[in-house]
Each structure stands twice: as C-alpha cells, then as structure tokens.
Amino acid sequence: MKFQIIALALAAATGISASTYAQNNDPEMLRKLYDEALVNGQCYQNLRYLCKTIGPRLSGSAGAARSVEWGKKLMESYGFDKVYLQEVMVPHWERGAKEQGVIVNGTTRTPVALAALGMSVATPKAGITAEMIELHSLKELETLGEAGIKGKIVFFNRPFDNRFIETGSAYGTAGDQRNAGPGAASKYGAAAVIVRSLTAALDDYPHTGATNYGTNKPIPAAAISTMAANKLSAMLKQKNGKPVKFFLKTNCQTLPDVLSYNVIGEIKGTANNNKYITVGGHLDSWDLAEGAHDDGTGVMQSVEVLRIFKAVGYKPKNNVRAVFFMNEENGHKGGIKYAEQAKANNEEHIAAIETDEGGFTPRGFSFEGASPEFLAGVNQKWKKLLEPYEVDRLVAGGGGTDIGPLKETQPGIKLIGFRPDSQRYFDIHHTPNDVFENVNKRELELGAASIASLVYLIDQYGLSL
Predict the structure, then answer these.
(1) Is 132 in contact with 153 (CB distance < 8 Å)?
(2) Which of 228, 317, 390, 421 has the most CB atoms within 10 Å of its CB?
(3) In the beta sheet, which residues pair with residue 192?
(4) Are 53 and 126 part of one and the same domain?
(5) pTM higher than the cut 0.70
(6) Whether residue 408 sits in one domain with residue 287
(7) Separation of alpha carbons 122 and 218, rounded Å
(8) ∠ CA 25-453-450 to the nearest 5 degrees?
(9) 221 strand-pairing partners
(10) Same domain, 312 and 267
(11) For residue range 285-294, what is the model confidence (pLDDT) as tens digits?
(12) What was the pLDDT predicted at 277?
C-alpha cells in the first residue's frame, strides 16, 4: 500500500501515470528479486534435504508420501497465506529386485547394464531368452509383420539426433521407442522389448522412463545403456548367420492405485481475488536416484518464488501459487487433478509456468502456442529488462506436462516453460546419476530468480500484449 501511495503521489505531481511509474521501477524490483535469491536463497538447502533425507519419490512409494508431508510443512514454515493438499489417486508401480540382461552370442555371454521401463511387466521368474531383432523405428514393425517379429525380442536402437541444438528436441524425436515401442511390438507378438537409452551421452548408465501399452498386451520392456546398445548392435551385424539372443529377467509389478497429493502454497492477491498465476514442478521422481534435476530443482524453485516475494515485501495483484505436482513421471494424475479442480472452483488462470528441465543455467522461457505477434510484444516489453540476467530468450515452445491440462479447462491461459541450458540434462535424466551433487547452487538460484522475475512482470502487466 505504501508503494502504491507513493506511486500515485509522484504520478499526480509529475503527470506520469502510475503504470509508467511502475515500469520505471521494474529494473529495481528485478534486482531485488535476484539479490534475495543469490544472497539469501534457500532452494539449494531445501533440495539437499529433499534428495538426501527423503530420496527417491516414485508415485505410490513411501518416499513420495514423506515428500508430501515435508513439502507441506516447508510451505507452512514460510507463512504463505494458504497451504493445502489436493487429493489425487496415483499409480503404484514397483521395480522389484535388480534386473538382469545378458547378450547371448554363441557360447559368449555378455552382461549389460539395463533398467526396466516404468509400468512394464515382469518376465517369468526364470527370465526370457529369445532371438534379437534390431529396429530403428516403429514403422519397421509394420514392414516385418508378425512373421518377422513373433517370439523375438525387439531392440529399438535409434540414437539421439545430435544436430538439434536444444536436446529436448532430440529427446522428443527418439522418445516414441520407449513410450510406444513395447506396446507396438506386442501387437506383432514380440516376446519383449529392449530400448536404447534416451541420451546423447555414451556411457554405461541405463535411463528408465514410462512406457504405455495402450490397448495392447503388456510385455517385458527395459532400457539398456548407450554403450551396451552399441555393443549389441555390433554383435547383431557380425552374427555370421547365427542368431544373437538376449536373456532378460525383470521383477516389476503394478499394485493398486494409492491416494497421494499435490502440495499447494499460495500468496493472496491484493486486487484480483479469483485470478491466478501458477508456478510448479513435479514432486515425484524415478526410483533409481534422488530425482535432483528431475524434478527436485523445479519444485524447490517454485516454492522459492513465493518465498522471495515475501522476503522483499512484494504483494502481488493476483493470487500466486506454487504447486508440487504428484505423478508426472508415470501417469500425470497430479496435473489432471489440478486442472479439474481449477475448473470446478471457477478459477481464472492468467498463466502457468512449469520448471521441469533441470536446474541448469537459465536461458529464458518458451510460450506454448504463441503467435509471432505475441512473441514480438513480449520481447519488446520485457527482453531489455531480462537481458542483464541473461534470461531474455523468449520464444515459442512447450509449456510442460503438468500444466498442460489447464489449457483444456482455462480458456485464454498462457502456458510457459522455464528453459535452462539443455546440454547436460539428458546425460543424467532418469538415471542413477540424478543426485544432489550434480546440481550447481548458483545455477539453481539464478533459475529461481528468473522465474520470480517473470511472475512479477506477468502480475504487473498481464499477458494481453
């Protein structure tokens, strides 16, 4: 209120509108947000607790339940105006005992690093041994048909396309092998599926991730490391008329759905009681590691946005929410539930920002479905403000999985993705290497300040540009 009175007084004395006055002070406010994040930031220490004390948080697990309880207490400790849990039923899949994979080439047996895909089914207790067939696309399944596939283990071996500068694009173009490959191969009678890990890195760490069988019969499915994929491919090319076989043993199971929660914290707006700006990431993680970059960094940055606002005394016009979504990795139930409840409560969402691409150096933001005219307006108004912080890349692109359902229930909403540097993310994504030690404190804090800055600008001026 004090700031508003001063602004109006100066406007009356100088003939400058209150809106213009606010714009003239935007650089000062952004500087305050960054100073708070970089000097007094708490997202790094919070991430340490989430990763090291709680650990893996796959939906339905005890770790996920502990993270919900802790996340709520964390938000309450910051004194947000409203903190609550939003019920959501989530899948409960368990990996079970460590998987086994062996290339059987004549009398030579070569163990390889692999991990069952999320939502996959187990092999028989004794495992499966079958002839391998290497494919590079789902289209090849149709060409070979049941005669060429039935009873065999299909090996999808399409690598990342390294010509993409944004590695997320490479992930997107290779991802159908893991997402839909097992279900598609099942349709032709495949015994199991092995998928090359979705990464450009050449290492011996398998990358897990969810698969979706659709209406097809579930068959065992696993990802192998890129080094193992290259080794297997070389053996298949040199088989000299003799079939190369593969032994696979997995022990996973899907249990009944479990009650879990989205964790939500809110700062009330001073002017627009039913308008919302949401910033969020997903609290769940895969079971192989601590889920540091995917997506511990995202949830900690989200809550940090609200903490920063309170610390600098900024009172938003609109309600600002931080959401820890549950079940992004293997079902997206948290995002669906949040959108359903927003519609049921007749809430009007101005914008939703998702941070789920790691806690690396911030580069900018992508706006889903943005027209050239909209992007030109955003850049004209805000690029110069964001340039000093090197987060001024404002482009068309995706918003995010968890906020995606909002576009079906909130007409006019702008979905926005936080875009950090992408070059290292898929080296550790969905692997045992996604641990706290691989997160840089300053990069994480810069990201939180960047998101807080964009939320501030949207809160001040909206997105009707």
Answers:
(1) yes
(2) 228
(3) 153
(4) no
(5) yes
(6) yes
(7) 9
(8) 140
(9) 193
(10) yes
(11) 999 999 999 9
(12) 98
